[in-house]
Amino acid sequence: MLTKGIARIDKKTKELVKRLNPGEIAVINHEDIDEVAANSLVMCKPCMVINAAESISGRYPNLGPEILEKAGIPILDHIGNELFSKIKEGDLLEIKDNKIYIDEKYIGAGTMLTKELIKEQLEATSQNFQKELDKFIENTLEYAKKEKDMLLENLIIPKVNTKFKGRHTLVVVRGQNYKEDLHAIRSYIEEFNPILIGVDGGGDALMECGYIPNMIVGDMDSVSDECLKACEEIVVHAYPNGEAPGLKRIEALGLKSVVFPAPGTSEDIAMLLAFENETELIVAVGTHSNMVDFLEKGRKGMASTFLVRLKVGSKLVDAKGVNKLYRESVKFKHFVGLAFGAMIPIFIVGALSPTVQQLFKLFLIKLKFIFPMELLGRYHIW
Q1: Backbone angles phi, psi at 234, to 5 degrees
Q2: Which residues are in the SteA-like C-terminal domain (predicted)?
Q3: DSSP count for the chain of H helices, then E strands
Q4: Domains of the chain with CATH codes
Q5: Would the pLDDT of 81 be above 90?
Q6: Half-sphere exposure of 259 toward its Cβ, with a 13 Å CA cutoff?
Q7: At what angle do helices 266-276 and 303-312 cross, to 10 degrees?
């Protein structure tokens, strides 16, 4: 197989997809390609993905490589950091027999991930999964002990302008199947008009569906400038010591924000913010709630999420996967009902119309000449 294309290279896949064009080659350094990263790459339609790291390390069953393979995007895997450093943005790459050439000069090679190889590597992850689960649980419990006082009792909630009291809150995270889930609850959004919180890139997810976020919460590393300028309020997630790297970006845009120092994830503090401001209900879309979700984010535990969900649990409805539970579809019986309903007013109007009445009388007269009078009278037609 021979593949040629312009290289777009970045260590962070979420940054790369912002400038990756169809037909180009995505060069990444992403161990265990996750589902969200894979879907974002698929949307850009590259002709190939070259990964410096292992797309499937064997620690857990990540779905990213399988998604890329099904989309017809080949993956040249595990080329290594040394070869990754040789490729520059804009280089014209030629890949032949798993070997990479720049200006017809051979620079290195990788492993092509076929459908069979992906399946084989994913099956092998089951051997390591139990070990990863044990370490994950231990880490979660250890940090839960350290963070419980700060998160549940001593955390200072900043004052915000958004009024939550008596209203529902929708928290959107750009996680697994977030688009499908967001589409599935459109009727809920239209009916209840909840406060819309986008967690970083979740704000752009809302805008893609035609909604303007009331609030953006996060470290501001994956949300667009357009979304930040359009939303009503910005809450910058800072480290517990007060350091907030995302604040520089907000200030550079000339926007105002509220800084919220707290441990844990940005989706955790978004839920806490709504809960402490007396929201009536919290509906979460695309949030991270299991071991695989957190391993894909590079986290070794989920202490803060565990604690926060314990606290807000009475008000929390997790809409993750709701699209699989309910998928709206139009069936034939709906069309029959619609057609029948539409005919009723037409029939009533027609029956009251003098023109229609005259046509009906002419029709009966014609019947009189075709059929005997006795037959018409028997069936009360005349």
Answers
A1: -125, 130
A2: 320-368
A3: 18, 15
A4: 2-124 (3.50.30.10), 131-325 (no CATH), 332-378 (no CATH)
A5: yes
A6: 15
A7: 20
- Mention every residue, 6+ apart, whose C-beta is less than 8 A from residue 82: 108
Beta-carbon contacts of 134 under 8 Å, excluding residues fewer than 6 positions away, are none
Q: How many Å apart are CA 371 and CA 63, to the nearest integer?
A: 74
SS (H, E, C) 351-378: HHCHHHHHHHHHHHHHHHHHCCHHHHHH
Among the listed residues 272, 294, 60, 315, the one whose alpha carbon sits nearest the alpha carbon of residue 167? 315
Cα(286)–Cα(199) distance, integer angstroms: 10
SS3 155: coil
DSSP letter, residue 80: -
Q: How many residues does the chain have?
A: 382
Give bridge partners of residue 50 from the DSSP assignment.
27, 76
In angstroms, rounded to a whole number, what is the distance separating the alpha carbons of residues 23 and 285?
A: 32
pLDDT at residue number 35: 86
pLDDT at 9 over 70: yes
What is the distance between the alpha carbons of residues 248 and 203, in angstroms, rounded to a whole number? 19
Closest Cα to residue 270, out of 204, 205, 215? 215
pLDDT in tens, 115-167: 999 999 988 887 777 777 777 777 777 777 777 766 666 788 999 999 999 99
> Which band of pLDDT confidence, cut at 50, 70 and 90, is reported for residue 336?
low
Q: How much is the average pLDDT of 309-323?
A: 79
Q: If you compute the radius of gyration of the chain from its CA atoms, what whole number of angstroms results?
A: 30
The separation between CA 282 and the C-alpha centre of its own chain, rounded to angstroms, equals: 18
287/20: higher pLDDT: 20
Pull the structure tokens for residue 191: 């009916």
For 30-57, letters b (16+ CB in 10 Å) and e give bbbbbbbbbbbbbebebbbbbbbbbbbe
